[in-house]
Write a structure and sequence with these properties.
The complex is a heterodimer of chains A (248) and B (993).
Chain A (H helix, E strand, L loop, with lengths): L2 E5 L5 H16 L2 E7 L5 H9 L4 E4 L3 H9 L4 E7 L12 H9 L4 E4 L11 E6 L3 H14 L5 E8 L9 H16 L7 E6 L2 H12 L3 E7 L8 H9 L4 E6 L1
Parallel strand pairs in A: 1-2, 1-4, 2-3, 4-5, 6-7, 6-9, 7-8, 9-10
Antiparallel strand pairs in A: 5-10
Helix pairs in contact in A: 3-4, 7-8
Chain B lengths: L23 E6 L6 H12 L3 E6 L3 H8 L9 E5 L5 E5 L2 E5 L8 H17 L3 E4 L8 E7 L7 H10 L4 H15 L6 E5 L2 E5 L3 H14 L7 E6 L20 E5 L10 E4 L2 H17 L13 E6 L6 H6 L2 E2 L3 E4 L12 E4 L3 E2 L6 E2 L17 E6 L4 E6 L6 E7 L6 E9 L16 E7 L2 E7 L4 E14 L8 E14 L6 H34 L1 E4 L2 H16 L25 H14 L1 H13 L1 H10 L22 E3 L5 E3 L2 H4 L3 H16 L2 H5 L1 H16 L1 E2 L5 E2 L17 H19 L7 H13 L4 E2 L4 E2 L13 H4 L7 H5 L1 H5 L9 H7 L9 H8 L10 H11 L3 H12 L16 H15 L3 E3 L2 E4 L9 E8 L2 E8 L2 E6 L3 E5 L2 E5 L2 E8 L2 E5 L1
Classes of the chains: A alpha/beta (248), B alpha+beta (993).
């Protein structure tokens, strides 16, 4: 049986993290577990876990290492983290989630601090910008969500203005033909939205219009400070949890 | 790159170069006799589908007697007299002489020359006379008496020197000189002991003609085996442009002296027995189902190697196959993506209204599953329409050759060599999208039928599997060769019957792979004979041009009706909907090269004229209103809104307002009539199309109090601005439509009164066209000059560019940026209808304002820039158009190839660079050549005549098989049967006499 791991701390975000993790576990048919890396006390974290009927498991060591080790376990489907306040603090927003995402091959979820996430995961938005890595992110997400009964929406963003638009009523379908051909029957029930513009801006706009419960975006693996600019930008501004899917 | 099947060890006594299947075998004998066993082998090879030819020193009729009767179903055999008396084709229906290209030489000139040679010899003290007439039409001999016995050529040489002639070479030179003086341009001279032979053709010339005949039957020179029985003259000279250099054939000399080497020729010993052995090896290869070799040269082929294992629908689309009736394509045959294989059929749709789409049909080309991510090599032979494919490597490779028969449309054929345990699956697969499918078994054959809204597509197939150990029966890993033949049946208004397709499959299977291949290859060669364009000076562009012409020819039927959608039969994109793309961009190519296809395209419109009339009524107008976008019924299927590439929902008004198509349809009919001279169509449907569309315009034009006529509220070809008033393109085409209808009916009223014709003329004369006599520029629509003077060429980093997405629709609408040629479409489509000399000012004004956001645009500009002799941008635009799909410039080639752009490429070359037009029973030429090209050659059909036009920088030639009235750069000339040559003289062309 697979697990969704909620990595919680003593902050107020822990409840949101658990909520998202529970929704993901239910959607993907996985067990749910709460873990905490001990730094300075864990009562608040334990109470948050207990409030949803979970017993908190304590991990020790350097947080990124400990959580990476946890994420790397074979039965872990995803690890869910809370993002601390995105605009203040000595460390950049989501630094822990990004660090773990860059080390593990397991998808990780970052939950923004100031949201009330849904109890139920029903709509998943997948962000793509035409690169090979974003195609891989889509493939992994499709595999992960197969059978979960989710409404999948792919937002495909082109940065460049195309050279041609012939007949609008056919052009989008024709353009998507290759895209659909590559990903095959898995896209049969997927809605695809096309955008042109800066990828992060367009994905955030799509989040506004589609109102998904979760957004999936590729995250370069291994990570690095100069990689994943689009994902970082989305992470900073997204009003919904972000699923970072490791891609080469 | 060649491959005749899986690699194998050749038998010890034949060179490796002979261990493959050849498509053509030429036996070249120096002796007139033919052993019975050899004759039988030649016949058996012809029966097995090989293109066989025999050259020997005897008239063709005598050769036919010696060869004897051919087996039933044999491919016709070519026979040629090595002495030059003529060639013929021997088929099941008898012997048919083949014409030789007239070269203006007759026997009298040769006799005159020979007489002069005899006189010269006499003056040098040698007794000489003309030899008795041997009945040859191509050679005359002079016999001379040396007076001494000559036992060697050295003796002859000495004799000639003694008589004041510079040896054998001197005598040959003298004979050549006399021949030229008598008017024999290209003489062949042979000096023998006691004889000088003057001829217009030697055995080498005959072999060149035979090679050309084989080329015209679809046999590439690289696939030709020339078996020389004894030493004769060799065609070592560079061949004329018709056929590639004959040196690329495989030459084998069978004689007694293996130690005498000749460059470029394999030498074998063993005489007649060895000749028969080589022939029997070829027969054995065919009987063991060897695959035809991949031998197409680069200028005739498209080859890709997908070694990354990543699927690419855009790459797959390049390899779509079609026969005018059905098209099929998709990923490699053996793979894990059978769900992506598709089949569509001409004019067979499903759905209703805007959701109408091409019905997905049964799939003939799927060969079971194989592990994913295998490297795939594909080669499309554009000349023969064969698709070669190899996926995987070594013993696990699946190698195949497939085609949709152009000779028997709706017949799909594949031969595949597979590993012994590979399961190929049934001959016919059901489509993988949700459609209504039935299947069953009839007479032991499985059939599948898919039903659409009104019609359907059925298929039945037969396949046979032969297990071979290694290659062609020799030792090695076991493999199997599968031959599959599938017959498809299509119908637009009923369901095709299963009995018909089962029967068709059975009959096609009885012919067999090789027989079907031979006739298919010949059919393609015939199409290319009338349509090829040869470009010297840009090899990559040459190949791209042929790629375009190949798919154009494959996508259009030539009987019944042809509904040519935006992607033709190369994909499912644009749902098979028919736009002005068909009438304005595709039809002209077919009118000029294969008129039957153009007629079929017009039949599509003719059959939907009643619906167009009803549509006009519904709009409160007279006449006929053809829809912007149509499918099965002829009703408009343009949706009213769609999401654009930014995700926004935008209104679509082209269906309501883009009305220039109403004139494009009769203009296409006019183009067909001009090129074909089809009087029956001209007197019937053509008149109906013209009158009803003229009536439409007559009811559409509003005449203002000042007497000018206007057409308000339309969309022109430039779709960035809508709606507009007095779009110049729409108005000038409407004017042409009215005038042409009036002119036609002047010849006989046929239901059109004098008053109505007069009104048409008045409306045409008063119709506003936006032309400004001071600037020479047509205003694209009323108020265009008041828009923001935005020059897209300065604003955008690159063009083509979708300016509406770059700038946003509001800014685009308010600016002078246009999507594609609009005013300039007139200069391209109806150059006689615009003010003379107005091309340059309009090019100067509009080109820099054109975003080329439509894939239709670059080819039109290439044509016009060529007319304006502005070659650098013309070539840039031509390349954009020619490589549009090859380089997937639109990002949407995966859904099918851009047929209109391909038609535009032909027009850019023919109309633009060639200055070619058919007008009033004459063929107009005004060719130009960019400095980087050395020659441009077209083949067209004009009023039944086969015409070949070759343009070099200082020379022009026009070759026809019957007299044609030409106008060359404005000057009338009658092109006699044969070749008329011109030389550049300043700005003019002067006929060379």
């Amino acid at each position: 049986m697979t697990r969704v791991v909620a990595a919680i701390d003593n902050s107020a975000t822990a409840r949101s993290v658990l909520r998202v993790a529970r929704a993901a576990a239910t959607a993907f048919g996985a067990d749910l577990e709460a873990v905490h890396v001990l730094e300075d006390g864990h009562e608040t974290a334990a109470a948050s876990a207990a409030a949803v009927g979970l017993t908190l498991r304590i991990l020790s060591g350097e947080p990124a290492e400990a959580l990476t080790a946890e994420a790397d376990r074979a039965d872990v489907l995803a690890v869910v983290f809370g993002l601390r306040d995105r605009t203040s603090g000595p460390r950049p927003a989501g630094h822990l989630v990004l660090e773990v995402a860059g080390r593990t091959e397991t998808p990780v979820v970052g939950v923004p601090p100031d949201i009330v996430p849904s109890d139920r995961l029903s709509t998943l938005l997948v962000a793509m910008e035409g690169s090979t890595s974003s195609s891989e992110a889509l493939r992994r997400t499709l595999r992960m969500s197969a059978g979960a009964g989710l409404d999948l929406v792919v937002v495909h963003v082109d940065e460049d203005v195309p050279p041609f638009t012939d007949q609008v009523q056919h052009e989008s379908d024709a353009y998507l033909h290759e895209f659909v051909a590559r990903h095959g029957p898995a896209l049969r029930d997927v809605r695809i939205e096309l955008r042109i513009g800066a990828p992060s801006d367009e994905v955030l706009a799509a989040i506004d219009s589609v109102a998904p419960d979760l957004v999936a975006v590729g995250w370069p693996h291994p990570g690095g400070p100069d990689r994943g600019e689009v994902a970082r930008e989305i992470l900073t501004h997204s009003p919904v949890p972000l699923l970072l899917v490791p891609v080469p | 790159m060649t491959s005749g099947g899986p690699a194998a060890t050749p038998p010890p006594d034949l060179p490796p170069a002979l261990d493959r299947r050849f498509e053509g075998v030429l036996l070249w004998s120096s002796r007139p006799s033919l052993a019975v066993r050899t004759a039988r082998l030649l016949g058996d090879l012809a029966g097995a589908g090989a293109a066989v030819a025999w050259i020997a020193p005897l008239p063709a009729a005598s050769l036919a007697e010696r060869l004897g009767p051919l087996p039933p179903g044999a491919v016709p055999v070519l026979l040629a007299d090595g002495c030059g008396s003529g060639r013929a084709e021997l088929g099941s229906d008898g012997l048919h002489p083949l014409p030789s290209a007239p070269d203006g030489t007759d026997l009298e000139m040769l006799r005159t020359a020979a007489g002069a040679v005899a006189d010269r010899l006499v003056r040098h003290g040698l007794a000489a006379r003309l030899a008795p007439d041997a009945g040859s039409t191509a050679a005359v001999s002079v016999e001379f008496s040396p007076g001494v016995r000559l036992s060697s050529r050295a003796d002859l040489k000495r004799l000639l020197f003694d008589h004041g002639l510079r040896g054998i070479v001197g005598l040959a030179d003298a004979a050549t000189e006399e021949a030229r003086a008598a008017g024999v341009v290209d003489v062949r001279v042979a000096v023998e002991r006691g004889r000088v032979v003057l001829a217009t053709a030697d055995a080498g010339d005959v072999a060149l003609e035979v090679a050309t005949d084989l080329w015209r039957r679809g046999v590439d020179i690289r696939s030709l085996l020339v078996l020389l029985d004894g030493t004769t003259g060799l065609p070592r000279r560079a061949a004329p442009v018709v056929v590639p250099d004959v040196r690329e054939a495989t030459f084998v000399l069978v004689d007694g002296s293996a130690d005498r080497e000749r460059p470029g020729i394999q030498t074998l010993t063993g005489g007649a027995e060895r000749v028969r052995y080589v022939l029997s090896c070829q027969l054995r290869l065919r009987r063991h189902r060897a695959l035809p070799a991949r031998v197409a040269p680069a200028e005739w082929s498209l080859e890709t190697c997908d070694d990354d294992g990543r699927p690419s629908a855009a790459r797959d689309a390049l390899f779509a196959l079609a026969d005018g009736w059905v098209g099929t394509g998709g990923p490699p045959l053996a793979g894990d993506r059978v769900d992506r294989v598709w089949t569509v059929a001409n004019a067979v749709y499903d759905g209703e209204g805007p959701a109408t789409h091409l019905l997905p049909g049964p799939v003939p080309f799927a060969l079971g599953t194989a592990e994913p991510d295998r490297p795939v090599v594909r080669l499309l032979d554009l000349r023969t329409g064969l698709l070669h494919e190899r996926s995987g490597s070594d013993g696990s490779a699946v190698e195949s050759v497939r085609f949709l028969s152009l000779d028997r449309p709706t017949t799909a054929v594949v031969r595949a060599s597979v590993p012994g345990g590979h399961r190929t699956g049934p001959p016919v697969h059901e489509p993988h999208t949700g459609v209504r499918v039935e299947s069953g078994v009839l007479s032991g054959t499985r059939w599948v039928r898919v039903s659409g809204a009104t019609g359907g597509i059925a298929a039945a197939g037969l396949q046979s599997r032969a297990v071979v150990a290694g290659t062609h029966g020799r030792d090695g890993p076991r493999r199997a060769v599968v031959d599959r033949v599938v017959a498809l049946g299509t119908a637009t208004d009923m369901l095709p019957g299963e009995a018909e397709v089962v029967d068709a499959a059975s009959r096609a299977a009885a012919i067999g792979f090789d027989g079907l291949l031979a006739s298919h290859r010949r059919a393609w060669a015939r199409r290319w004979e009338d349509a090829d364009i040869l470009l010297e000076g840009d090899d990559a562009l040459q190949r791209a041009i042929r790629f375009s012409l190949f798919h154009l020819m494959g996508s259009v039927a030539d009987t019944g009706e042809a509904a040519v959608g935006a992607r033709g039969l190369t994909g499912t994109g644009y749902s098979g909907h028919v736009f002005w793309d068909a009438d304005a961009f595709v039809l002209p190519f077919l009118a000029a090269t294969h008129p039957a296809s153009a007629r079929a395209m017009l039949e599509y419109r003719v059959r939907r004229l009643p619906v167009a009339i009803a549509a006009a009524r519904a709009l409160g107008r007279d006449g006929a209103h053809f829809p912007w976008e149509s499918a099965h019924t002829g009703e408009d299927v343009t949706p009213t809104s769609a999401r654009d590439r930014t995700g926004k929902v935008v209104p679509i008004r082209t269906g309501q307002l883009e009305e220039h198509i109403v004139a494009q349809v009769p203009l296409a009919a006019d183009t067909y009539v001009e090129w074909s001279g089809d009087r029956k169509f001209e007197r019937g449907p053509y008149r109906n199309l013209l009158v009803e569309t003229a009536r439409y315009w007559a009811s559409r034009i509003r005449v203002e109090p000042d007497g000018t006529g206007h057409i308000y509220g339309v969309i022109g070809p430039d779709e960035y601005h809508e709606p507009v008033d007095d779009n110049a393109c729409t108005n000038v085409l409407a004017r042409w439509n009215l005038n042409r209808a009036a002119e036609l009916f002047d010849e006989g009223s046929d239901g059109v009164s004098v008053a109505e014709r007069s009104r048409w003329r008045d409306l045409a004369a008063g119709l506003y066209d936006g032309y400004d006599g001071d600037t020479g520029v047509y205003e694209q629509f009323a108020g265009f000059h008041r828009l923001e003077p935005l020059i897209i060429a300065e604003v955008a980093e690159r063009r083509p560019i979708a300016a509406d997405l770059l700038l946003g629709p509001d800014r685009t609408h308010g600016a002078q940026v246009i999507k594609q040629a609009d005013v300039l479409m007139l200069h391209h489509l109806v150059p006689d209808q615009v003010v003379p000399g107005s091309l340059e000012p309009n090019l100067r004004f509009y080109e820099r304002r054109t975003a080329h956001g439509s894939s239709l645009s670059p080819a039109i500009y290439a044509s016009l820039l060529a007319r304006a002799r502005d070659f650098e941008p013309a070539l840039d635009a031509l390349r954009t158009a020619a490589f549009l799909d090859l380089d997937d410039l639109t990002g949407s080639s995966s859904a099918g190839l851009h047929l209109a752009t391909m038609g535009g490429v032909w027009q850019a070359l023919a109309f633009g660079f060639g200055g070619l037009r058919a007008r009033s029973g004459r063929l107009h030429l005004d060719p130009v050549l960019p400095p980087t090209w050395s020659a441009l050659e077209f083949r067209v059909r004009f009023r039944g005549a086969a015409v070949r036009i070759r343009k070099e920088h200082a020379h022009l030639s026009v070759t026809t098989d019957r007299p044609v009235d030409l106008v060359v750069s404005g000057k009338a000339v009658t092109g006699d049967r044969g070749t008329t040559r011109f030389r550049r003289h300043g700005p003019d062309w002067e006929e060379e006499r």
